[in-house]
Amino acid sequence: MSNRLAVFDCDGTLVDSQHSICTAMVRAFEGEKLAAPDRATILSVVGLSLPLAMARLLPDAEADYHDHLSESYKLAFQQLRRENAVSEPLYPGIAELIRELDADGWLLGVATGKSDRGLQLCLTHHGIHAHFVTLQTADRHPSKPHPSMLLTAMAEAGATPESTVMIGDTSFDIDMALSAGTRALGVGWGYHTPQDLMDAGAHSVAMDSAELRGHIHAPHVPSSDSRSR
């Protein structure tokens, strides 16, 4: 019997990091003498790897410049850490949900556009790092919605698509889950709207952690929209 695996996105799902993300992005753009995108536009690309996010924000720029701007963003975020100005609070009920799932025998993972370092710092700060058995980041994988992160998480945890659920707040998370053949659960408290998630093919969208708990425990129904890449 395969292990039950619940894989969470981080930004917009476990933690509300929008203030820090937007501040770092504005600093990165202003440091390059560029007009910064507005908050809604920045949040629309959260979850993608940095170069792909920059490509969406500056579609007419060259790939080398997207890489350069990505490094500028990383430096801006690191400066926020030095200023003790990073804000990444857990969403209500998330810590309790993580502990309950772990105690109930679920294996837990994260698949995120964050860096390895950023994810480790975030989970450790909130005292939940030890609950996760597999951590997949953009440092070692193609950007979402490519299923690489989720496929690797399943391999490391000894889980199958039928025993795995992906939980996220963006259409990138939903598309990744469907590509990997897992259940795709949306959360309505993040950076894409509940309608965006349902339009992307989410099996359900939870509006709070209690509702999410019920959706995670619901039986898996194979999706006709599962895709291979």
TrEMBL record:
<dbReference type="InterPro" id="IPR023214">
    <property type="entry name" value="HAD_sf"/>
</dbReference>
<dbReference type="InterPro" id="IPR050155">
    <property type="entry name" value="HAD-like_hydrolase_sf"/>
</dbReference>
<protein>
    <submittedName>
        <fullName>Haloacid dehalogenase</fullName>
    </submittedName>
</protein>
<dbReference type="InterPro" id="IPR006439">
    <property type="entry name" value="HAD-SF_hydro_IA"/>
</dbReference>
<dbReference type="InterPro" id="IPR023198">
    <property type="entry name" value="PGP-like_dom2"/>
</dbReference>
<dbReference type="Pfam" id="PF13419">
    <property type="entry name" value="HAD_2"/>
</dbReference>
<dbReference type="InterPro" id="IPR036412">
    <property type="entry name" value="HAD-like_sf"/>
</dbReference>
<dbReference type="InterPro" id="IPR041492">
    <property type="entry name" value="HAD_2"/>
</dbReference>
